[in-house]
Predict the structure of Enoyl reductase (ER) domain-containing protein.
Amino acid sequence: MMSAGEEVRSVVLTGYGGYECLKVKPWPIQALGAGDVRVAVAICGVNFSDLYTRQGMLRELQPPLVLGTECVGEVTAVGAAVAHIKVGDHVLCYKFTGGLYRDHVVVAASHCFVLPPGMSYEDSAALPANYLTAYFCVHDIGHMRAGQSIFISSCAGGVGWAATQLACSAGDVTIFGTCSPEKHDAVRENGVTHPLTYDGYEQELLKHSPDGVDIIIDNMASSAFTINQRLLKPLGRIVVIGANSMVTDSQKFGWWSFLRLWWSTKNVSARDLIMQNRVVAGLHLGLLMERQPNTIQSAMSHLFQLYEQGKIKPHIDSIWPFDKVVEAMRLLAERKNVGKVLLRVETADK
Amino acid sequence: MMSAGEEVRSVVLTGYGGYECLKVKPWPIQALGAGDVRVAVAICGVNFSDLYTRQGMLRELQPPLVLGTECVGEVTAVGAAVAHIKVGDHVLCYKFTGGLYRDHVVVAASHCFVLPPGMSYEDSAALPANYLTAYFCVHDIGHMRAGQSIFISSCAGGVGWAATQLACSAGDVTIFGTCSPEKHDAVRENGVTHPLTYDGYEQELLKHSPDGVDIIIDNMASSAFTINQRLLKPLGRIVVIGANSMVTDSQKFGWWSFLRLWWSTKNVSARDLIMQNRVVAGLHLGLLMERQPNTIQSAMSHLFQLYEQGKIKPHIDSIWPFDKVVEAMRLLAERKNVGKVLLRVETADK
């Protein structure tokens, strides 16, 4: 099972482009290094970063490669230098450079989190990309406290859903969020005080809160970045976390729309920051994990605690068999999901 | 004493320029409005903003005008609509547009803070511009916690001195700060772990802390802003609070050096913020007070508490008679002070 040249079933990206570039097929697995663990994968989480990678936005990831930034399963082997994880543990893995959409993975132990007893695979698979990102936005950078207000763009998506729950855990908060109208009931149920549509959200927010809000989570990285800054109270914090607006359905990544978006995103001057008493931040969870793994481990421990206290509860939109990875990704690209989209790995040998 | 057209001794700026533009002379005091209090001034604080105003950097303040952004004294009259302040109270006043260097002032009650019993005039006069600014940098924006590190530029100045004490109150912190070598003993005594010189501070800081620091307070608003960003850890917060490097001794404000400084201050892009996991902020205490007076009142209450607990203790560099205002301002401009420079108002009728 761990022989050299061994291949395992994997979602392979054969080139940049549309869904036709995805193939589910056997692909070689790397050897177990001293600091690695091998995991029999049960569930994988689907993320916007998978779409970026397929479209070719992350040029440092050259196809052919295996997609997938998060998975969860049971440890089947550990390297000689791994002390805190043992065979049989249930672990959650996160690696922003991908490689985890497979029925078995070998991954560095530093990229794994041992699940607390009783936590389901499905719930835990929703945590890394979405809840960690939301956690740093709301708690660490946002420093959200009782009585404050927050605006969450795409509040029905994975990060938005998580951010809503984490904001609620601060107590007595007001939450504004954009999503398409058919999702408004669902996000209200999750804790959003004022669901807004993408069209005219600025005016609508100011109608309820003329001074603006304390925190903004912006996943668009577009001209909305400038609009959103105007919605901030003095001392308000805006966190830019992504570029969802650059993902288009089923197409190769468009350099023109990418460049147009960056151009339309005005830079921030020190003078404006001072005159507006503004705090502007960016978050890249993957790079943060590479540079400060201990910070991530401690945030995940806190998330596990919040989960056990019932303060966060991932919402699973749908679970797809491994072979339906294209349908699962399409759901995200078309923004039809509410909450997390998962893949279930079903193999005979587990 | 409160008749129409009454004049009181004041520090009047007669035009933009050098110290020759300052005259101590009688100047009309405004009538007491319903929301105002009248204060017999005991002590005034001298700040960099007084130098900016004199040099003409704040063009919205047109001479002739009375200088001075902070003072403390005893209330001698209150307007009909003032509920929380009474005659005889000791109050601290802060108004970033100035007008407080006089032996009696009329000021809006919303710009006053009633002193806790037993707090000296000298100590309290050091609080508004310096300790409030430092408070928002370290606590509110900086969100400083035990075990973290901070870099404070100009750590021997008023704000730097206050920020050092406030950072220490978080417990187990590492403090880097720049100031001229002859002040290193004094700032070390105040809590700075590693006093640095302005020349080569970047390399020196990284020698002690290769990953950078958690918080930076930057009062230069110059090309140092770009250098300083490189000294931030992921999730690190940099707060820009001023433009001290634009103040030159005894000269009229130089537009060329002003423009050169702003040009050399590179704007911040959303992309860089994301890729570096960086938080960039600006703070303008005066504008914050205009827009969110309640935020300032609650911060000042917290400062009064910290003072009573002995966690902060203003350091008075020197106290000058009112007539020596030029000498007092020169001390700041030449950066010869350590801690706060004050003026004492001595009049016969109090």
Observations:
- The first helix of chain B runs from residue 48 to 55.
